[in-house]
Amino acid sequence: MKKVIELFVYSLQDKRGTENATYSLAKGLANFYDVRVISLLKQDEVGVLEGICTSSLNISSKYKIVVYLRFLFCLLFKHEIKNKIVISSSPYITTILIIFRSYISNLITIEHAPYIHFNNKFNFLRRKIYKYIDYVVCLSKEECAIFNDFSNSILLPNFIIPHKVKESYKKKKKQGFNIAFLGRFSPEKGGERFIRFAEYFLERNQESNVNFYMIGDGPLLSHFKEIIEKSKYKENILLYPPIKNVQEVSAIIDANFVCSDYESFGLTIVEFMMLGKPTFSFDIDNGPRNIISDSYNGYLASKYDFEKMSKVIENHLSLSDSETNEMKQNCISSFKKYDYRNAYSYWRELID
User: Fold this and answer.
1) N or C: which terminus of the chain has fewer CB atoms within 10 Å of its end residue's CB?
2) How far apart are CA 53 and CA 250, in angstroms?
3) What angle do CA 112, 115, 119 make, to 5 degrees?
4) Residues 97 and 243 placed together within one structural domain of the fold
């Protein structure tokens, strides 16, 4: 009989970021174990999705604190986790699961959100209770260093499973060099910063043929639409609906752009590497600097330095064909570190 693994996520609706990484992990582990992905929030679709068994605890509330309290209630009276291997994708979910630690066969937490995302009191609590977890999986060296006095902390980066691209996704490419901001339209992702940088770059490079795509959805969508509509460069700053994976727009986009307040990892960077395409990123405190080797497989510019980033892009556009191809090969080579086959073997060692 296969071991049972339950992966808890807050929601299955957003198929980027944490949820996308969770699905990739679930798909791989399903080759060896009985894997179930469980959402706290009520979902429109459950069952077998993309080959993965998914279910929901059917919790409904606009307040997160209520969701977590109801999750606690479910574990107490409805949902059985005894003798199961449990993987958590959220520190808040992990905190509740620790209450039931004596019943769980193996408890693993993945630190998708960076340490700086949480207040000091909650971080203090994490350090006190994480010693009771079997493994704390960190996605970056910085996060791992925070728990380096714990024998149970381990560095395991996220990974990507390639998808076949449907013909319908192979859109006609807009002329010029196309740069994409890809992710959730929420404050911490820096979407407005991306728009302001695009305006700055286009103002100082008025003869260039560069376009800036915003691909995604989220609470700031209407705000971004309003800003772009008022911009003198609205013809070069384009909104695009959300996608499930980067390969869907591989025929359109030439490079990725990261301008977040923080990133625990930076999954889109690896997705673009897989396609042989570089990422332009501000050197924020975590994430990108662990993946990008500046001017080798992408670019790092001083944090939110628009002038420096503009020069970086201008220099990239001046590369010869051979230099551009060399960077493409560097990206593809760098991607091997995040190959799903290597990641699965590491995860099996943890679980078995």
Assistant:
1) N
2) 29
3) 120
4) no
Give the confidence band of 158 by pLDDT, cuts at 50, 70, 90.
confident
Q: What is the pTM of this model?
A: 0.81
- Do both 17 and 141 map to the same domain? yes
Provide the CATH number for the domain around residue 87.
3.40.50.2000
Domains in the chain, number:
2
Distance of alpha carbon 6 from alpha carbon 85, whole angstroms: 6
Residue 137 has what DSSP assignment?
Answer: E
Give the domain-ending residue among 122, 156, 190.
Answer: 156
210-215, strands of its sheet edge to edge: 237-240, 210-215, 177-182, 255-258, 279-282, 299-301
More confidently predicted of 271 and 300? 300
- Residue 92, C-beta contacts closer than 8 angstroms, at least 6 positions apart: 64, 68
For all residues of the chain together, what is the average pLDDT? 87
Helix (H, G, I), strand (E, B) or coil at 162: coil
Interval 49-103: pLDDT, tens: 666 788 889 999 889 999 999 999 999 999 999 999 999 988 889 999 999 999 9
Query: DSSP secondary-structure letter at 207?
Result: T
Answer yes or no: is pLDDT of 48 > 80: no
